[in-house]
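User: My collaborator sent over this chain with a note saying "see what the structure looks like." That's all I know about it. Can you take a look?
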Amino acid sequence: MQTHVSTTPFGRRSLTLAHVATQARAKERPPEKAVHKWKIFRAICTAKPRIGVSERALSVLNALLSFYPETVLTGEDLIVFPSNQQLALRAHGMPPSTLRRHLACLVDAGLIVRRDSPNGKRYARKDRAGEIELAFGFDLAPLVVRAEEFEAWAEEIRLEQRALAFVRERITICRRDIVKMIETGMEEGVPTRRGGQGPADWIEVHALFRSIVERIPRTATRQALEPIADELSMLADEVLSLLENHVKQSNLSANESHSERHKQNSNPDSLPDLEPDLQEGRGAAPEPKDETSRAPEPKPASKTEGAFPLRMVLDACPDIVDYAKGGISNWRDFLATANVVRPLIGVSPSAWEEAQTAMGEVYAAIVLACILQKGPTINSAGGYIRELARKAQAGEFSIGPMLMALISSRNRARKSA
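Assistant: Without extra context I'll predict from the sequence alone. Here is the result:
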């Protein structure tokens, strides 16, 4: 006697053509074909964006596979028939309504097939020898039939993930290299023009770098990041070429001691004045000494304002981390990075000294990080920090609202993204 296999779901659940197609493919499965159930499950987890299932649905599939006694899916009988109660327990206590919804998702995705009994219960009938001759539950045959398809999708996604990681690494390395090479070019007075062509100065090079970096989205695909990575790579090559040509033209001696003397004799005050329109009537003050060897606490700009946590400052102004040589883990690192950023955004030594005198060394560095974060919205960073220093001297300026405005802006950007 040939037993009719159930093809329609019990109750009010409808049968779709997609379900019929899945059942037809399951019938074409060769009985001798064997698939490791956990290997194919890992492939499905990797390929879940292509399949269209969620993590919760995959936890239900994991529970269903655990009810199949063998490790290898093969043979004619691939039906598991756990009750909802037992299935919910193995799905980490999932509520019954959620369990039914994710089971329907697995059926719609073509991962399992319903084999419902006349009353909708899941059970098996055994013969006199104790062998299962008829079972009602969920058929795992589609996993065997589509094993190659799932493996191919998983491999495509793994390749895409590796390619995306490679592009992100390229961008990170280029950003680090460009920032440090620009810093070296400014400190050593390397010219940026060759044969009358090229950027006017290192400020223009840095502005070009920032214009490229600001186009990097927070969450992006490989296709969106590759053009940006190419532009950064080209810019890094051009900046490196400027430095190499300068080294060749300077005919530096290979003697290590000579190189050390050259570094010690470099004069940071020889940097070009980045805000000439604000220097009329002012004497060029020497650049303040770098006192970052100790880790000072922030000096309040007013009597009512206290120190801000470093984590809060970095959350409001994350761009300054790009200029840190080894990351920012304390105030000493933050001050050292601010001294690197200061000439890049066009703040002269005299303006910097005024800000440090009026606000304190740490608060002046925080204001500098805020100016960097605001980017092109500030036309003259040097004039802006002078104005804030004047207000701080008069007790009319507080850093708190500036930091909170930046944090609020970033939170709105995250929500909109």
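A starting point for your reply to your collaborator: Residues 252-257, 261-306 have pLDDT under 50 and may be disordered.
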